[in-house]
Amino acid sequence: MAAATPHSPPPQLSSPFLEYIRAPGGLDKVVLRGRRSCSVEIRLFGGQVTSWKNDHGEELLFVSSKAIKPPKPFRGGIPICFPQFGTQGNLEQHGFARNRLWAIDDNPPPLPVNPAIKAFVDLILKPSEDDLKMWPHSFEFRLRIALGAGGDLSLTSRIRNTNTDGRPFSYTFAFHTYFSVSDISEVRVEGLETMDYLDNMKGKERFTEQGDAIVFESEVDKVYLAAPSKVAIIDHDMRRTFVVTKEGLPDAVVWNPWDKKAKAMQDFGDSEYKHMLCVEPAAVEKPISLKPGEEWKGRLGLSAVPSSYCSGQLDPLKVLHG
Ligand SMILES: O=P(O)(O)OC[C@H]1O[C@H](O)[C@H](O)[C@@H](O)[C@@H]1O
């Protein structure tokens, strides 16, 4: 199904757990509803999750109050970086997928789904003629966004090489997840200690993280290599731990712009860096290569665990490996 134009009727989504909301300027969105006040909002522009709320209706993702409307990328939520992460290539920063209008995929190829999950939507992105001029590869990018019974959020990407000229292609990728945190100075990240990383602030030089949990006192922009499949973000003040799980995505980018860069960013408030942290499951160091007909799958899982779990009773080993 193509994305709705301003004059076409909104797509009929056949589920009480889904709502299609029309909005001008490329801002149409799909809302997934779960138990109590759990919800997820997805904008078709960028195929981007822009809100994830828990069962008390509290927002769990950061969105900048200065976020700019299309055709600019939207600062916050979960932008999709494809087919290029960062400046690692000839394309615009983070590739074009976050800057394109996605469509609802009515007829996606089967994807095993937990029968308890009722609220999900499938999106699809295919390259336009202009995209093919910049990146001469035909692909189908399918994205399933699902809200679990317990309020967990998952995003599954399936990218297929549909080139008919026999050519393989390779790309880098990230789920650029912006978490909402109470105070960045009180946050720690567990699961990445002792990992090797490339420091984007030091010309992508390779270092090894020290043995302690990661805390934040200044700008951070690191690509952790071959990171574990679970990472925990512990927010002391909110008494909340985010558990990030990843499959098919070897790396994890950690980013906070801190004060100076925040001031230089047009679409970001001067002190908003205090209330966000990006932890981005990614494939950056080693691009993924696909031959024609081949498909790659990558999955991001997010859950928010309440306070008792993260104050005193937190057993990091259990959160990360249990
Ligand atoms: O401003 P954007 O293009 O959205 O990028 C925001 C940030 O994304 C990633 O986390 C990169 O590692 C950073 O280097 C970059 O500054």
UniProtKB/TrEMBL annotation:
Pfam families: Aldose_epim (PF01263). Belongs to the glucose-6-phosphate 1-epimerase family. The lineage of its organism: Eukaryota, Viridiplantae, Streptophyta, Embryophyta, Tracheophyta. Its EC number is 5.1.3.15. The active site is at 176, 280. The keyword ATP-binding does not apply. It comes from the Eukaryota. The keyword Isomerase applies. This is glucose-6-phosphate 1-epimerase. SUPFAM superfamilies: Galactose mutarotase-like. InterPro entries: Aldose_1/G6P_1-epimerase, G6P_1-epimerase, Gal_mutarotase_sf_dom, GH-type_carb-bd.
